[in-house]
Write a structure and sequence with these properties.
Layout (H helix, E strand, L loop, with lengths): L2 H7 L3 H21 L2 H16 L5 H17 L5
InterPro entries: GvpG (IPR007804)
Organism: Streptomyces lichenis
Protein name: Gas vesicle protein GvpG
Amino acid sequence: MGLLGELLLLPAAPARGTVWVLRQVMAEAERQYYDPSAIQRELARLSDRLDAGEITEEEFDRLEDDLLDRLEKGPPNR
């Protein structure tokens, strides 16, 4: 893009910067959400909560299924 194009788009720079930042935050959040080691830690904590009697078997099964689905699915393809 030439100098004229850059000058015309200059007023939109803050909005473009905000969109870029939001995309970066979203990408990092997805990376952490689908990180296998984070999911394994959550599974371990879930098992500890079951052993401590903080959750029922039904809750454990539901939450475990959600975590295993996340692990199997992985991040969305972009």
